[in-house]
Design brief:
The chain has 681 residues and is of the alpha+beta class. The protein has 23 helices and 26 strands. α16 crosses α17 and α19 crosses α20. The protein binds 2-(butylsulfanyl)adenosine.
Length: 681
């Protein structure tokens, strides 16, 4: 390949990958599968390595490329980033409308109603159609340059199409998705860190991460909704401008309404209010904007914000209840978590009787006492949270909560590690920790042993039948079926458990790695690590992990390993070099289990399903592993989840919508057991 050819190919690949990123992350309608995407990406990586002179700082391979920074550079906004005046009622909004009509002396204009996203406002600047700067609002005049972190948000275009202006600044709101927030908080608490109060704080915290690798692991996204200082003139209306932003590859609000009258504005606000919990982001109101941009100069601005727009804040949904008691739970990693036991009350569609209070510091800070009347809210619209006590309602009978000095389950000593807010039970043999570890081991994304729920596991541990997750594999059918679970014989369920454990033996590496429950190794991290290792037994002496720890990932040639974070690599190595980890590995060998990387499943070249990817889901009439074996014998490849390589999704009863939806998107055929048997001949 000549230099010129290489340069051209790199340019083409950059544009092509950008296009697929846009289709996937912005428009949610991918046109190629993961495998083809990976091929393009890998070719680009290779060419950029061989021809570094043509590497473009805005190449999709450079999204997570920066080294940690010491702090953020301050940048001055060319045009101040204003805020918005707020209203809380329809009469207030009617006053806003009257003010506009008075100032304009005309009536022939339109209002747009949009969601008011509760995130962090950002300015994105492009020069030569390439992203050159991303900055936070700061005080409106000067903000922080967070370009490196913004690049890691996959829906932010790094380059713009040819019909976009050469110089452009757009403004919008970065946010953390609601599910992402829930998962991140689980991770934070597991690591003994303070959880984030809401998705907005989590988003702000992520954008201010000094290490872009950490920022990249946070589920951030953006909606663009406003003009910046350049490139946005020449649009007659706000809606036209938003449509252009969308054409240029920016995500825009998934819902908006154009309204001819205040009656229509009120109706739109009510409609949006009804939808408020259905978005991926949290919204705290609606924004009403004059659509005709020529009127903006006439209307001008106040000290707060433009006079052509107004925020309408929805009343936060909250409910009053009583903290009847505070109990303390012991988690898988020994963390003691105080939980408010509440008088059951309905809030935003569900009845709530418990809410985590996170840790003792938090309770003291909020001054929540046992017996208090409190306001209950949902953090990130999903997690029940005590917002604040209502001190006026105190009778004097309330009691201040004290964290127990010993573990409430095993009575063992507790410790507070340096830099952690959490208090942990220091006894690794604590039955509560063990039960939660086993429950995790058997959970869906781990070894998926359905019949092993909380009560069954508690009974097994209490009877001393298991004292380690691997003990499950030595359980006999007789003793298991005789097990007393809250007054009932476990009975036939024993067979289900034993069969599920038998199938678990051949589950792929990433599921086992996740199942162990190593701190900082969630399901996704486990997949990333598993992708770099052929077998479970390779993890202990892994060079890849050592390279990551030594921050030598680049020398490892393959940039893919950059996905693995130092914390996670360290934790895995620490696990396998601990006494427990070594013993675990030995016992795996004794049990004859050495899970392999997913794709390395042996492929039978002949047979009715040769090379065909299949996923089994739902309740089937025979054990899942039995079907899996039949498929394998017919040459098929049994996968644990639907990917672009899945041809058939074999669906039993009670199949989750996410699986079939994903199958539909990827063009996987959904078939039933009867059809599978036909295919197997
Ligand atoms: S337009 C001059 N549209 O709300 C500011 N802002 O509380 C014009 N916000 O600072 C902004 N969603 O960060 C606009 N659809 C939306 C918005 C929105 C959220 C934020 C923005 C602003 C804050 C004011």
């Amino acid at each position: 390949m000549t230099n010129e050819e290489a340069q051209q190919r790199i340019r083409w690949l950059v544009a092509e990958i950008d296009r697929h990123d846009r289709l996937y992350y912005v428009e949610a309608r991918p046109v190629i599968g993961d495998r083809d995407y990976d091929l393009l990406y890998e070719e680009l990586l290779r060419l950029e390595r061989d021809y570094p002179q043509f590497r473009d700082p805005n190449s999709p391979t450079q999204r997570v490329s920066g080294a940690p920074v010491a702090g953020f550079r301050q940048v001055r906004h060319e045009l101040p980033m204003q805020s918005l005046d707020k209203t809380h009622s329809k009469p207030d909004l009617a006053d806003f409308d009257a003010m506009i009509r008075r100032d304009l002396g005309e009536t022939g204009f339109t209002y747009d109603v949009e969601p008011k996203i509760d995130g962090v406002s950002l300015s994105l600047r492009y020069e030569g159609r390439r992203l050159v700067q991303a900055a936070t609002r700061g005080n409106g005049i000067v903000g922080d340059d967070i370009t490196q972190n913004a690049r890691t948000i996959r829906s932010i275009p790094l380059t713009l199409p040819a019909d976009a202006p050469d110089a452009l600044e757009v403004r919008g709101e970065a946010y953390m998705t609601r599910d992402g927030f829930v998962k991140l908080n689980e991770r934070e608490e597991e690591s003994g860190r303070e959880p984030f109060a809401n998705p907005r704080n989590a988003c702000a915290g992520s954008l201010k991460q000094l290490d872009p690798k950490e920022a990249a692991s946070r589920p951030l996204d953006i909606v663009v909704y406003n003009a910046g200082s350049v490139g946005c003139d020449g649009f007659a209306s706000h809606m036209e401008m938003i449509a252009a932003f969308r054409r240029w590859g920016f995500p825009t609000a998934p819902w908006s309404k154009s309204c001819k009258s205040m009656g229509e504005v009120f109706a739109a606000i009510d409609e949006l209010g009804g939808l408020r919990h259905s978005f991926r982001f949290e919204i705290d109101g609606a924004v009403v904007k004059v659509d005709e941009r020529r009127l903006y100069d006439v209307l001008g601005a106040t000290a707060h914000g433009p006079r052509w727009a107004r925020a309408y804040k929805y009343a936060p949904e909250r409910a009053e209840t009583v903290v009847e008691s505070i109990t303390v739970q012991v988690g898988r990693t020994g963390i003691l978590t105080p939980v408010a036991e509440l008088r059951p009350t309905e809030l935003a569609g569900s009845v709530i009787s418990r809410a985590t209070l996170h840790n003792a510091d938090q309770i003291a800070r909020q001054d929540i006492r046992i017996g208090d009347h409190v306001w209950l809210v949902k953090a990130g619209d999903v997690i029940p949270a005590v917002e604040a006590p209502i001190p006026e309602k105190r009778t004097g009978a309330e009691r201040v909560f004290e964290m127990p000095s010993a573990c409430p389950v095993c009575g063992g000593a507790t410790v507070r590690e340096e830099g952690e807010v959490a208090i942990r039970c220091a006894n690794p043999a604590c039955p509560a920790q063990l039960s939660r570890r086993i429950e995790h081991f058997a959970s869906r994304n781990a070894l998926d042993v359905r019949a092993l729920g909380e009560t069954v596991v508690d009974a097994l541990v209490e009877k001393g039948m298991v004292s380690d997750p691997l003990d499950l594999f030595s359980l006999g059918a007789d003793s298991l079926s005789a097990l007393d679970v809250s007054g009932h014989r476990f009975g036939k369920n024993a067979i289900t458990v034993i069969e599920a454990l038998a199938s678990a033996r051949s589950l792929p590496l990433h599921r086992w790695l996740f199942a162990i429950g190593i701190p900082n190794v969630g399901a996704t991290v486990a997949r990333d690590i598993a992708a770099e290792h052929a077998k479970f037994s390779d993890l202990a002496g892994s060079e890849v992990l050592r390279n990551v720890v030594e921050n030598d990932a680049k020398k490892g040639k393959d940039r893919k390993i950059l996905k693995i974070k130092v914390e996670a690599a360290k934790a895995v190595l620490a696990f396998f070099s601990s006494d427990y980890g070594r013993r675990f590995l030995e016992r795996m060998a004794e049990l004859g289990i050495d899970p392999a990387r997913e794709e390395s499943a042996p492929v039978v070249a002949f047979g009715p399903l040769a090379g065909v990817g299949c996923v089994l889901t739902g309740t089937l009439s025979r054990p899942r592993e039995e079907y899996a074996e039949l498929i394998r014998r017919a040459g098929g490849i049994v996968q644990s989840s639907v990917t672009s390589k899945t041809r058939y999704l074999i669906a039993g009863e009670n199949v989750g919508a996410t699986k079939t939806e994903k199958a539909r998107k990827l063009g996987t055929e959904v078939i039933d057991e009867a059809r599978l048997l036909e295919l197997l001949g």
